[in-house]
Amino acid sequence: MAEKKQKAAGLATYEPSFAKEVFQNVDYGEKIKMCMQCGVCAASCPLSMVMDYSPRKIFYMIRAGKREEVLSSKAIMLCTSCYSCKVRCPRKIPVVDVMHGLANYAIRQGYVPREETMLFGKEFWKQIVRLGRIDEKDLPRRYFFSKGLIPGVKKAMELADMGIVMLLHKRMKLLPERSIKGAKELRRMLDKASAMGPGGR
Amino acid sequence: MSKKVGVYICAGCGIKDALNIDALANLASEEYSIDTIKTHENLCGKEGVELIKKDIEDGVNAIVIAACSPRVNYDVFNFGVDKVVERVNLREQVVWSHAPNDEDTQMLAEDALRMSIVKANASEPPVPFKAEEEYSKKILVVGGGIAGLTAAGEAAKAGYEVLLVEKEQRLGGFLAKNKKRVTYPYKELSDTGIDELISEVSGNPNVKVFLGAKVDEISGGPCLFDVKISQNGQEITDRVGSIVQATGWVPYDAKKLPNLGYGKYKDVVTNVEFEEMASQGAIKRPSDGGEVKSVLFIQCAGSRDPEHLPYCSSVCCLVSLKQATYLKEQDPEAVSYILYKDMRTIAQAEDFYRKAQRDGNVFIRGTVESVGEEGGKLYVTAQDELLGEKIKVENLDMVVLAVGMVPASRPETVPKIKAPEGAQGADAEGMIEVAPDSGFFANRALNLRYRQGPELPTLRYGFPDSHFICFPYETRRTGIYTAGCIRRPMESAQAEEDAIGAAMKAIQCIELTTQGMAVHPRAGDMSYPEFFMQRCTQCKRCTEECPFGAINEDEKANPLPQPTRCRRCGVCMGACPERIISFKNYSVPMIGDMIKAIHVPEEDEEKPRVVALVCENDAYPALDMAGVKRLSWSPHIRFIPVRCLGSVNLVWIADSLSRGIDGILLMGCKHGDDYQCHFVKGSELAKIRLSKVAETLQRLALESDRVRYVEVGIMDYHKIPEILDDFMKVIESVGPNPYKGW
After folding, report:
1. CB-CB under 8 Å, A19 with B362
2. Looking at the predicted complex, does its ipTM rise above 0.85?
3. With DSSP H G I counted as helix, E B as strand and the rest as coil, what are the percentages for chain B, rounded to 5?
4. CA-to-CA distance for B163 and B243, rounded, in angstroms?
5. Do A64 and B384 touch (CB under 8 A)?
6. Using the beta-carbon criterion (under 8 Å), do A36 and B337 form an inter-chain contact?
7. Structural domains in chain B?
8. Is A90 on the interface with B (CB under 8 A)?
9. Are B542 and B575 in contact (CB under 8 A)?
10. For chains A and B, what is the number of CB pairs under 8 angstroms?
11. Touching check for A6 and chain B: CB below 8 Å?
């Protein structure tokens, strides 16, 4: 109620608690303390034009305590790990890790800011765990049809041209791919890693 | 001094390939009856110099060297202080910048030689000034803060006696009131170290400390400063050699800042007050002594604001970071917000900013709007630049205003004096506000008994005029050097360095003056202006126009020159309408003779003649550089180097015009707020005087276009041909001087 009143008056309040939350729960979260708001990350990011908030703004908003806006932002889901930002940050903030960490945290907190990214991510991960590699036909198939038959067929039709070219150039197999050698060992490694907890500690 | 003149022409550096050297030698012999005329392939070499030295042994005592620019090889052509040496700039300004083997180039070389011979004949070697009174080598340091203490300590360690005058009852200034200091290497807080410095300096046997004292009066000049110090009703007099003013700063008055709640809410304090609180014990809420869990620092409180202090005080950002660190050390759970316009961490202090960030302080970039109170706690509203919205930070226990530094010299209200006749802006009582660059503006610290005012003239914002960007410790009063925050806002490590520099300059001044030499910028110059008082008409132009206030005045308005205060610029010489001022090697008749020595061709020969008076600091080097770059310009211009355009006496213009010279060009350094003129006001005065010449010219039926003043910076060498040829075009269009051949 008080928050609504303030929003109506056009005054945002500075709240240090969300920042503390991020420092404790997000991978490398405490590094954002060092951000000096230079904007190089925002300027380098190839996706900044489709992000609702640039990485710089995300960090500032965390420090200002804007929990809702940050955890429900599309920006944190759109990071493609190109590393342009991380390489250039003058304060050596691992921007990529923080963005992914925030996305992870947001999902754990029950926010789903960009459904497609989350669905694709889940399917991608499931394949890796099962096969140790990606099956070029199978992954898109599972992703397209994850939302239902009709949307799946529609999407597949849209990308039919590219699919045929890939088949002709032997980039895609009609039959299912086999797994890597040692897929079992990989699964054991992944199990151990997730047992170690976030940040590998 | 009876003169035996020797003329030496160098054939090297391309001179013999461009000029007829024999013709030059003949000229010296026929027109000036000089017996000793020698030529050499390489005059600056060992053999060439030996040649000259041999002639000196045979009696030559006025040496005219027709070779390269006087700005080079002055060490090679140094034959002792009792000889007259004149340099003819045949290389850079004749051979390298004009067509070889050309009639006009030859005429140019001939005139240059004539002028130098005439000057050599008229010049006398300077005799260094030595006052009858005893010279002192002591140094007076006014102000006992970190700058004053460091200056005193360094001068004492160098072996000089120091008098250190401090108005408070204890030394240390503002640094003594600090809890900690942030200094090199700017990674963490360090102890102020002020107590050690105080005991080191007070303990030095060369230093005499006067606490609770002030300077009542200073009269005299370098090496002869008679100082009266008053302490507890007692008066102490002494003579000192030079002075370092390190009187420091005061914080900007926070009561003048609207909307920030200072004075209204007890928990709103300035950075100075916060520091004092922290240094005396724990940080507590001033209103009720309660815990401090959150503080907001408002940066640039009254700084970088045209309504308050337009400048940045450079240290306030670091100070707030330091104070936020105090709070974190006292209570790791406490939060500091820092509301800033820009985060300015000077020197290498970025590391300390990083530390403050690592500690978890919150940095908000924005502009403060108001400070208010709600439920016993403070809140601050601001426009957050990075969020793009208005924000409110609530539940603050304290708000700290990071106010800037005001130099101790800046008066609260501008002083007024009786307006001179005809002055504009006088109020009902005939009083007018004093200009900042007058010696009557600044708050009293030195109380100089100088005709031009008791304090150092100030430049912008009330800081003493530092005279020149390259010479930071210099002021417009010879022998007085400023150090520390009085000069500009600076942090403690910089103040220390500043003080060491000022101490060195103070020592330099003493050592040069005892030898009768000038200090900056004509360091080592032993000539000084002499006044032929019988013809003085007490017009007061020299006493008013001297840029350094070096001339006192008695009740009858007679000038009382103080040679140790003089910078030897010659502005007084240029000002005097009766022409009673002269130097042994630089005078009005000397330059007049040089002008008269120029051969002015008849009107029908269609060779115009222009005299260019060129200042030695910026314009002459620019000309030389243009020559080095082999740029070219009209051969009809005759260059006469002068010490400063301010030393140009208007009679030279009359002399030139009456000889049939078609035009006069004055080339000098920039003046104004960002002045380059080494003598501060010289070129400005030249410009003002020229504006009065226009009227005289009209009465003589001469076009005022014939006389032009042009600003030439030392880097403007590439513009030289354009400037000169432009002027020649104007001269050609107004036509030849009708007084030719008279």
Report:
1. yes
2. no
3. 30, 25, 45
4. 9
5. yes
6. no
7. 1-125 (3.40.50), 139-248+409-514 (3.50.50.60), 252-404 (3.50.50.60), 530-582 (3.30.70.20), 586-742 (3.40.50)
8. no
9. yes
10. 54
11. yes
